[in-house]
Amino acid sequence: MKTITMLMAGALALASASAYAQEIDWKKVDSALGKSAVVSGDVHRYGVPRTDLNVTLDGVTIKPALALGGWVAFKPMHGGAMVMGDLVLLETEINPVMKRLLDGGLDITAVHNHLLRASPATFYMHVGGHGDPEKMAAVIHDALSTASKTPFDPPQPAAANPPAIDLDTAQLDKIMGVKGAANGGVYQFAVARLKPAVEDGMQVNGPLGGANAINFQPTGGGKAAITGDFLVTGDEVNPLVRTLRANGIDVTAIHSHMLDEQPRMIFIHFWANDDAVKLAKGVREALDKTAAAKS
Fold first, then answer.
1. Most buried of 12, 69, 73, 154, CB within 10 angstroms?
2. What are the extents of the domains in the chain?
3. How far apart are CA 77 and CA 80, in angstroms?
């Protein structure tokens, strides 16, 4: 009886969120944020990459799609929307941006590094909140445009000849067990967990930051710089870390991104610059230590 009641409650919450999604004027949210969204189901995700920064690490100039791709995503829920995001900031921008977000009613759920030895150093501020999506979008835009140099330039037309991915992407797809996608000169994989975490009754899926993110940036001669993050449960942390280290992949951060998700998820960031096929095998071996999907 209890199970049936829980299922009915979940169905009602989903129906309520779906109904509210139809009431949201997403054009007003776009206008408030100064961006257009990529829509996945009922999630509206906005990219806020730091295209203004010239960041280098171990001689590699980092493309925004590799490790500077800030974002915020909105998901309708009863009485408004949930927002989650990951903002890329310089050290001097952290507290001014945080103040404006907090004053605007949003929550800060994490501040940390993803990379080591990068110049200039970049930090990542995770935000969350519930309420009117247009108002929350306006707060985020105000914080980033006033207290940071995050660009809000109009979107540029797609390049006729996007940057080539000088890697054997078919081989990488085969090793990783999922199909990657080219984005701004970087080959990206999003590998879902078999059972996504849940926060406030909502599944934290890929568009909300709920997938393993593995990025390959070609560095010449079949090599690639790789970074991204794995999301794992506590018991998966050290098996994954040991496997990464055994495969010559540095672990650069271990931390949380959210506050109330179930089960509790830990995010593990990494870095290496080596033969791309070798690194893909190491990453896949590490993923196999976790409850990650493989097609």
1. 73
2. 16-147, 169-287
3. 6
Beta bridge partners of 223: 220, 275
Place of tokens 């995503």: 73
Question: Options 1.10.10, 3.30.870, 3.10.20, 3.30.70; which CATH number does 16-147 get?
Answer: 3.30.70
**At 44, phi and psi to the nearest 5?**
-110, 115
Query: CA 239, 245, 251 angle in degrees (round to 5)?
Result: 90
Question: Among candidates 114, 116, 111, 136, which has minimal Cα distance to 126?
Answer: 111
Residue 2 has which token pair?
């209890």
∠ CA(277), CA(288), CA(205), 5° rounding? 100
In the three-class reduction of DSSP (H, G, I as helix; E, B as strand; rest coil), residue 26 is classed as helix
Using CA atoms, how far residue 32 sits from 23, 82, 124, 141, in Å, is 17, 16, 22, 7
Nearest by Cα to 73 from 211, 181, 170, 233: 211
Rg (CA), the chain: 19
Residues in the chain: 295
- What is the helix (H) or strand (E) element at residue 283, kind and residue range? helix 276-287
> What DSSP element (H or E) covers 8?
helix 2-23
The amino acid that residue 101 corresponds to is L
If phi over 0 gives left and psi between -120 and 50 gives alpha, with beta otherwise, what is residue 241?
A: alpha
**Per-residue pLDDT reduced to its tens digit, 116-173:** 999 999 999 999 999 999 999 999 999 999 999 999 876 666 666 777 899 999 999 9
For 33, the 3-state DSSP assignment is: helix
- Bond into 120 cis (ω within 30): yes
Q: Has this prediction a pTM greater than 0.85?
A: yes
